[in-house]
Amino acid sequence: MNQKLQAFLNEHKLDALLLIGDSLCDPDLYYLSHFLSGDRFALLGKEKIHLLVSSMERGRAHKESSADEVASTDDYGIMERLQSLGKPDVAYVEALSEFLRDRGARRLAVPFRTPAGIYRLLSSQFDLTIMDSPVSGWRSSKSRQEIEAIWSVQRACQSAMGVALRLLSRSRPRGDMIYWGDRPLTSEKVREVIEVHLLKKGCDALETIVAGGEEAVDPHARGSGPLPANAPIVVDIFPRSKSTRYFGDMTRTVVRGEASLEVREIYQAVLAAQGAGLKALCAGVSGREVHARVCQAFAEHGFPERKGKGFIHSTGHGVGLSVHERPSLGEAGEILEANMVVTVEPGLYYPGVGGIRLEDLAVVTEKGCQNLTDFSKHLVL
Amino acid sequence: MNQKLQAFLNEHKLDALLLIGDSLCDPDLYYLSHFLSGDRFALLGKEKIHLLVSSMERGRAHKESSADEVASTDDYGIMERLQSLGKPDVAYVEALSEFLRDRGARRLAVPFRTPAGIYRLLSSQFDLTIMDSPVSGWRSSKSRQEIEAIWSVQRACQSAMGVALRLLSRSRPRGDMIYWGDRPLTSEKVREVIEVHLLKKGCDALETIVAGGEEAVDPHARGSGPLPANAPIVVDIFPRSKSTRYFGDMTRTVVRGEASLEVREIYQAVLAAQGAGLKALCAGVSGREVHARVCQAFAEHGFPERKGKGFIHSTGHGVGLSVHERPSLGEAGEILEANMVVTVEPGLYYPGVGGIRLEDLAVVTEKGCQNLTDFSKHLVL
Question: Complex ipTM, two decimals?
């Protein structure tokens, strides 16, 4: 990591990289510090990694973070500054400025998402260059340890999918709904079963999708209320390990009851398109090309639509400390490198019919890919 | 809400307020839009609330958000711009600029945390004023509906606390650890029981604290490994409702086994200080004054230390869509208003002894406060 940072700083003739935010919401910060905090802190990357945290967080940062040095805003007189300046943000930036000067940082790269207020206050004293964060690029290719962490979450994800599909398979179709005992089985109930299972495996899953029928025509709809019989139900699970903070991601689509011929054809097309995508994955190939192969497979199966209905999203995305990160498998997809971890998740969405999506998670290799997902694909339960 | 926005814009002679971010991480955005998304979107507040979302999110934004209008970046040619400009961020800001011009917004307030890259690109075309977000001020005083939502989460929180304390009370002290059956009872196990219980009540709880002995001397330590016998164990639960997105927050400290005289004295001091804080709460009183009363109570009980050990944090904070929000009950605490919801959570931390904290959640009223927490306080289980 430090080599990449040095190369970046040398290339741009900069003293340091400055990240400011909270590492719950900014995975770059977590990646460089291994310090998880919902409170704002600053990370200065030079030869070493330096943190500036609140006094409350100092002890934990010392213990938990991988940074070389931890300083606290108390060391930089935050309370006195607050009393004399009144404004908390101004007091903070004054303390931060002294912290930066003490470490010889003058020419600084700051990422695009740096808080504008801090950027403006700092820019009178420092030479700041706003850049796309280089860290998200460094994050895209994973170490062996990171791949192990993702694989481990993916296994928990599969286990939860198994529990969910068993629940669905044991429900009874009656009329246009499915029942568990006397009651309609709902998206909420299936989601609860998934999330409790994941929690017991040390994972959080905040936005699990269990959406059936017309709801699933919107790929981002989470689903609510009774689930339909004889219509596709999309189950998309993307848990995060509480300990490693890495995500897994997978989707299956199933029908409880009878699937129409149209739904079966759509399912076969999605399965074929996913196969084409996985087959196209390889170091040196662009995400754009993988996406093009998937689009081509859809067209060949008679589902060429891409606007408003049909295949309305891209083929996939990187997965790591974020559930959506680089690289993209879409129109603007960059060249893939070995050890990138990506989803391949084509889907078709037709109002009046429903949504069908299949998603696996795979590691890009020099010769192709290794699928981290080992879970069957069957439409009808 | 719209009245507050209008008054704010008139006072500062501005056309509109512009917020940019994702509403998972920015509660102001959620507050004004009721649209939950992990993807970046823009909110323009004028006479009406306008959203600019990605095409993928458009359907869901239409359905779920409370905004008056939803536009998508597709309406503003994001794909064509991306193809001609190359840079996604520049393409986005171009689309955003046209969206803003179309709605007659020229003089804009942007909050302190606006992404610096967007701020810089927009500032060549618009008259931007960086401000503390007025929304966090609007959020601090709650509506009846918001108080109901918080109260409901707080009841789930109490229920989970009950489950956790029953588990602890049924454990057996042996040597310096507590056991469940043949195995040491761990922080992780108690946390799992709490979080599964909360999940079944429709709440997430990401960072529950179950910390005993020396670990609890750091108020932010989450706790790990076997829990101690005969020493204080801090249980701090702050769940969020999945449906309303509001938080609850409460803390109890217990000893399983024997509590030393010193621990009992500390516990009594914390109890008294909390009583003093709750008694001081009232509309028109400042958070600073409430905090001073708590510090005074600690001093009167013989625990005056405030640096490094003793009462090393502030008295409390607002709770709502964030677990930490305005107002502050601390050194810089502002004047309290009716319907603010705040924690009162004094604690004492002594290396070699442990940490003891008690936390209730209360609504500030014209004549005092209404405690939303109805849960006993006993040191020894």
Answer: 0.88
Q: CA-nearest residue of chain A to B112? A: A117
Q: How confident is the model at residue B46 (pLDDT cuts 50, 70, 90)?
A: very high
Q: How confident is the model at residue A88 (pLDDT cuts 50, 70, 90)?
A: confident
Q: What is the pLDDT of residue B56?
A: 84
Which pLDDT belongs to residue A213?
A: 95
Burial class (CB in 10 A: 0-12, 13-18, 19+), B272: middle
- Return all residues near B154 (Cβ < 8 A) that are at least 6 apart: B248, B249, B250, B361, B372, B373
Write down the pLDDT at residue B68: 97
The CA distances from residue A367 to A282, A284, B232, in Å, are: 6, 10, 56
Q: Are B135 and B19 in contact (CB under 8 A)?
A: yes
Domain chopping of chain B, boundaries: 2-139, 141-371
Report which of B342, B344, B345 is spatially closest to residue B365, judged by C-alpha positions.
B342
Contact between chains at A82 and B110 (C-beta distance less than 8 A): no
Q: Helix-strand-coil percent breakdown of chain B, rounded to 5?
A: 40, 25, 35
For chain B, how long is the longest CA-to-CA vector? 74
> Which uninterrupted H or E stretch holds A267?
helix A261-280
Query: B307 — contact with chain A (CB < 8 Å)?
Result: no
- The Cα A359–Cα B109 span in angstroms is 42
- Terminal CA-CA length for chain A: 47
Instruction: Give B148-163 pLDDT, tens digit per residue.
Output: 999 999 999 999 999 9
B56/A220 touch (CB, cutoff 8 Å), yes or no = yes
Write down the architecture of domain B141-371 according to CATH: Alpha-Beta Complex (3.90)
From B56, B111, B196, residue closest to A196, measured CB to CB: B196
Write the CA distances from A197 to A166, B153, B239, integer angstroms: 13, 22, 18
Q: Spell out the CATH class of B2-139.
A: alpha beta
Please report the beta strands in B132-249, taking only residues with DSSP state E, as ranges in sequence order: 172-174, 177-180, 183-184, 203-204, 209-212, 232-237, 240-241
B79 close contact with A: CB closer than 8 A: yes
Identify residue B73 by its one-letter amino acid code: T
Angle at which helix B88-102 crosses helix B116-123, to 10 degrees, equals: 60
Query: Region B82-110: what's the mean pLDDT?
Result: 94
Instruction: Give the predicted TM-score (pTM) of the model.
Output: 0.92
- Which SS3 state, helix, strand or coil, does residue B73 take? helix
Task: Reduce the DSSP state of residue B24 to 3 states and report it.
Answer: coil
Tokens representing residue A370 in the block:
């290794």
Task: Convert the pLDDT of each residue in A202-257 to its tens digit.
Answer: 999 988 999 999 999 999 899 999 999 999 999 999 999 999 999 999 999 999 99
Are B315 and B285 in contact by the 8 Å Cβ rule? The answer is no
User: How does DSSP assign A187-224, residue by residue?
Assistant: HHHHHHHHHHHHHHTTEE-SS-EEEEGGGGGSTT----
Which candidate from A39, A116, A221 shows the least CB-CB separation from B115? A116
Q: Tell whether A117 lies on the interface with B, counting CB pairs under 8 A.
A: yes
**Which of A82, A132, A195 shows the shortest C-beta gap to B332?**
A82
**How long, in residues, is chain B?**
381
In total, chain A counts a number of residues equal to: 381
